[in-house]
Amino acid sequence: MKFGGTSVADLERIRRVARLVAAEAATGKPVAVVVSAMAGKTNELVAWTDGAGAAAPGLTPSDDEYDVVVASGEQVTAGLLAMTLRNMGLKARSWMGWQIPIIADDAHGRARIEDIPGEALGAAMDSGEIAIIAGFQGVTRDGRIATLGRGGSDTSAVAIAAALGGVCDIYTDVDGVYTTDPRIESKARRLAKISYEEMLEMASLGAKVLQTRSVEMAMAHRVKVRVLSSFVEPGEAPDQGTLLCDEEDIVEKRIVSGVAYSRDEAKVTLFGLPDHPGVSSRIFSALADANVNVDMIVQAHARTADTANMEFTVGKRDAARAMQVVGDLKGDLGFEGAALDEDVAKVSVIGVGMRSHAGVAKTMFQALAEKGVNIQVISTSEIKISVLIESAYTELAVRALHAAYGLDQL
Amino acid sequence: MKFGGTSVADLERIRRVARLVAAEAATGKPVAVVVSAMAGKTNELVAWTDGAGAAAPGLTPSDDEYDVVVASGEQVTAGLLAMTLRNMGLKARSWMGWQIPIIADDAHGRARIEDIPGEALGAAMDSGEIAIIAGFQGVTRDGRIATLGRGGSDTSAVAIAAALGGVCDIYTDVDGVYTTDPRIESKARRLAKISYEEMLEMASLGAKVLQTRSVEMAMAHRVKVRVLSSFVEPGEAPDQGTLLCDEEDIVEKRIVSGVAYSRDEAKVTLFGLPDHPGVSSRIFSALADANVNVDMIVQAHARTADTANMEFTVGKRDAARAMQVVGDLKGDLGFEGAALDEDVAKVSVIGVGMRSHAGVAKTMFQALAEKGVNIQVISTSEIKISVLIESAYTELAVRALHAAYGLDQL
To answer: Quick one: which of A35, A135, A372, B138 could link to A77 by a disulfide (CB 3.0–4.6 Å)?
Structure first.
């Protein structure tokens, strides 16, 4: 069982979580619980590290001391939940990353789990003790605290389930994975099941239910993951939620399973780029060297013979850096100018059914055209199509696509 | 170097601490720094544990999960100070209790340090890395976090100094140990030196500069401890403060070194107690079984032949429990009644010179009599005399005694 920050935001919510855990333990199954920091705590801690110099030149948030500070939030929640369960008469104890241990690499601030020797943890659980595990944290082979990046507690939970051979219930502030964001489209439907591949695309493309890496790990280890609401009473949970599973376990096939969107996009346009071999390579090597992740790319020949325009997208947070990098190349490559547009959004449709069905893209472009939404850039993979549009059209586009694929009829 | 909660209360103060540490490191000596939680943080964490059931029947603050929660505060400060020092271009890293390790017993919430294998820590310091150590915490031989009780960071600091063979500078919000509390007597003088024995009595009798256990440990290991103000600029520190040392290292002998007081007292009076052998033993055994610490005791025969009155003092926090215990014994022992008086204070004079000087008590009783202060209970040891008085007279008594022993003339 994994509970996120809003589910453990205060003592009253921690008591609610304790009741859900107690109900699960009453079924007789060994139970491990992964907890996040109380909502807001991680932000407070991160702000302090910024003040202490994490954001200063020469130091980055990947500092190992950053991890020492921010990992403390999960420690607090784990101790409080263990105390609450004991107070209800149950056997429980907290486990920090270094106690299990959850062995992680030393990429501090975004570490990856390498190994979880689960013997001590498993033995404690087999003796009837509920294990309360601090999420988001591991320990390096050097014995230093390492954190797994934002949303890392999801990954902790899936990794623990994989190590112990269990199922993983992610309790969150929504009651499952929806066909799209219900705050935008009230007709959004909860999916009873979704394939790992689709969930991976949904998470990468902007759906914030699960950390992308946790889905990768669930897929790699074939861990059955359920997304459930933590705002239910004990006993209600089993009928709710969304199950992540193999594609073949989904009986009712759909062409499209969901519509995702992200406003964390910025578009860079380079005008009048000389049409030589090696020019693109120069640009994208320089961006990679500056740690800028490039997402969508499109190149179009200009009307004049020897130059082209190029557009690509980056995360909003990297936009200024990307402009700096291309600006530095301007004299060298001899293009005419560069423009930045942060007023864009990426809208995507995702579905494993696309593999075997033609016409998915046609439906998408038609639906957007009917609403007068102009498509700026397109990118596709085997199971998704993404388009970049003007940000103001985001909600309109999401609703149009949700209807066009009949997702409100599920 | 040890810095308490008010010295690291926010990022600006942490930067001030970093400058003091940098100045010390610049002298070329290996430096270890022990830090407390940011002021207020431990109280916040303790309040959460109360809410989660630490204060509930059947669970006590000695719960091991209580320690998991409250130890997180020092972790945060240690990480932030290490980051700040790195940002100034220095080599530094944080050390948690479990990383050094600081091995403690499993009396959670008030654990005692058993051993500090200082090899890894010492090697890191010898390589020029400043060690930033989370105070107040150790780890049991079972690998669980254990905290050392309120003020435990002082003990952490002395223990680290003992393990590494160093001197221990305790930076605090006062600039040393005073002849009495300067908030009560503006003529209080800072002592340049004080013997371990005197400091131990001062700490036990109410002076809040150092945790009692840290003084015991300094005395046992002959660690040179200095109490200094953290509100000085780098470079100023060496001329300031108070040095704890052996009695023979103090050239200027004093009969009395200080006046301490405590308002954390409550007096229990038992009336008409049958004057049989074994009655006192029954009472104090029952109190000990209920974990009530008894401090001062006096027994007086009543005018009628066969009964006596008894008075004893306990900490205010134990007062209700003490009354419960004696109430339960009433029918059995057949005394007439019990009364509780929480309106009392203990005032003490401390000095190693008492051993060789007569008349110290006479001076005390005379000074108090002149001010009309009534003495309720007296207790003495080789180097201190304590009296219990009505709480309202506390300041008056402290000032009268401070003058009577000429402490404003030092």
So the answer is: A35
pLDDT band at B60 (very low <50, low <70, confident <90, very high): low
- Residue B148: which pLDDT band, with cuts at 50, 70 and 90? very high
Sorted by where each starts, the structural domains of chain A and their CATH numbers stand as 2-248 (3.40.1160.10), 259-409 (3.30.2130.10)
pLDDT (0 to 100) of residue B208: 79
Residues of B within 8 A of A9 (CB-CB) are: none
Cα separation of A362 and A148, whole Å? 40
- Sign of dihedral through CA atoms B384, B387, B392, B393? negative
Count of CB pairs separated by less than 8 Å, A with B = 119
For residue B233, give both structure tokens. 């600029």
Structure tokens at B102: 């600081």
Does A140 reach chain B within 8 Å, measured CB to CB? no
In 10 A of CB B208, how many CB atoms? 13
Question: How far is residue A147's CA from residue A42's CA, in Å, rounded to a whole number?
Answer: 12
A83 and B63 in contact by Cβ < 8 A? Answer: yes
Contact (CB<8Å) B86/A63: yes
Give start and end residues of each alpha helix (H) in A129-230. Answer: 152-164, 196-204, 212-221
Class of residue A275 by CB neighbours under 10 A (exposed 0-12, middle 13-18, buried 19+): middle
Element (H, E) at A283: helix A279-289
For residues B167 and B163, what is the distance between their CA atoms, to the nearest angstrom?
A: 11
Distances (CA, A) of B27 to A284, B84, B162, B225: 49, 19, 21, 19
Q: What is the CA radius of gyration of chain B?
A: 23
Q: Which residues of B touch A49 (CB under 8 A)?
A: 79-80, 83
Q: How far is Cα B141 from Cα B117, in angstroms, rounded to an integer?
A: 13
Q: Is the peptide bond before A57 cis (omega within 30 degrees of 0)?
A: no
Residue in chain A closest to B56 (alpha carbons) equals A87
The span from the CA of B237 to the CA of B400, in Å, is 32
Tokens of A217: 């790990």
How many CB atoms neighbour CB A209 within 10 A?
22
Chain B residue with the nearest C-alpha to that of A62: B83
CA distance A136 to A153: 4
Task: Tell me whether residues A52 and B78 touch, CB distance under 8 A.
Answer: no
| B43 in Cβ contact with B112 (< 8 Å) | no
A100 touches chain B (CB under 8 A): no
The reply to whether residue B76 touches residue A69, judged by beta carbons under 8 angstroms, is yes
Q: Are B349 and B361 in contact (CB under 8 A)?
A: no
In this prediction, the answer to ipTM > 0.90 reads no
Q: Which residue of A has its CA nearest to B87?
A: A53
Cross-chain Cβ contact A76/B79 below 8 Å: no
Q: Can you tell me the mean pLDDT for B314-330?
A: 93
CB contact under 8 A, B14 and A83: no
Chain A positions in Cβ-Cβ contact with residue B84 (cut-off 8 Å): 52-53
Query: A75, B69: Cβ pair inside 8 Å?
Result: yes
Residue A83 and residue B53: Cβ atoms within 8 Å? Answer: yes
Q: Which of B52, B53, B83 sits opposite A66 (nearest CB)?
A: B83
